[in-house]
Write a structure and sequence with these properties.
Helices cover about 5% and strands about 50% of the residues. The chain is mainly beta. The chain folds into two domains: about 20-155, C2 domain (Immunoglobulin-like), CATH 2.60.40.150; about 160-290, C2 domain (Immunoglobulin-like).
């Protein structure tokens, strides 16, 4: 049967003693922007869909301006916890090698109706990231005891959904060993009473220090502006293992979103922001982060 990304066929040219890869070919070759190699397996004991993202080949920009900084985002459109996972940014690479493992919670009853979606996005520090292409297929078309896939990436032109986001500025002074975090503003928040931001300094996966902004009584609570700066003493020797977690909440105790995290251990913009800060000492680096 045809998948949302095109036709599915087995590559019979491979050795029969090995698992035969599934080729997900686009119906229109003119829409193809490259292809991805991945492996899927369902773990029934843990009720998890396991994804091994191996590599991509022949990634092609969809416009003459080329890639800025592409990265990959994956999710399942099931009725369960909406977990969106993403890789780090790969600067202008056309053949990135990922070798990354991901897991998604998935009840057996939802296997027959869930789609797996892989998207290639182009990261832009100052505006909304753009979806360049995607691969999408129904899980019930596959042998989930373990399958290997080569899928064509199909060009799409649509904005990322209007997710809530925080604009954060980071700077680091190596001589003073001081990290400055500026909570600048947010957009697309759900309506909250007097929203404020909690932030934590993370060192070795533990919350070391806590700060919070003032509560904003804004006429537009979905798009509050704080512009509040916080400083943390952070030795240079701990920079590789440190990070920041941020959450939006309110005086009435409403937790707005799971939040966002910035650090080398994170994916996508979280990792990229920390890297940019480390490579530009003493210079404030601002970036938008989606709250998930």
């Amino acid at each position: 049967p045809d998948s949302p990304s095109g036709s599915i066929r087995s590559d019979s040219s491979r050795s029969p003693r090995r698992r035969v890869p599934i080729i997900m070919a686009a119906n229109d070759i003119n829409t193809v922007l490259g292809r991805f190699h991945l492996r899927l397996k369902y773990d029934g004991s843990k009720e998890e869909m396991l994804v091994h993202l191996v590599e991509a080949q022949d990634l092609t920009p969809s416009s003459e301006s080329g890639f800025r900084d592409p990265y990959v985002r994956m999710y399942l459109d099931s009725d369960e916890e909406h977990r969106t996972l993403q890789t780090a940014v790969h600067r202008a690479e056309t053949h990135p090698y990922f070798d990354q493992h991901f897991s998604f919670p998935l009840k057996p009853r939802n296997l027959v109706k869930s789609n797996f979606i892989l998207q290639l996005l182009d990261y832009d520090r100052f505006s909304r990231d753009e979806v360049i292409g995607e691969i999408k297929f129904l899980l019930n078309t596959l042998d989930l005891s373990g399958c290997e896939i080569w899928g064509d990436l199909i060009a799409v032109r649509k904005p990322v959904e209007h997710s809530p986001e925080l604009l954060i500025s980071l700077s680091y002074l190596p001589q003073a060993e001081r990290l400055t975090v500026v909570v600048m503003k947010a957009k697309n928040l759900h309506v909250l009473h007097d929203p404020f931001v909690k932030l934590y300094l993370i060192i070795n996966d533990k919350r070391a220090k806590k700060r919070k902004t003032s509560a904003i009584r804004a006429t537009d609570p979905a798009n509050p502006i704080w512009n509040e700066a916080f400083t943390f003493d952070l030795p240079a020797s701990q920079m590789q293992d440190a990070g920041i977690e941020l959450f939006v909440t309110s005086n009435e105790g409403e937790l707005h979103e799971p939040g966002c995290a910035i650090g080398l251990q994170e994916g996508g913009t979280g990792c990229q922001h920390w890297q940019d800060m480390m490579q530009n000492n003493r210079k404030p680096i601002a970036m938008w982060h989606v709250l998930r």
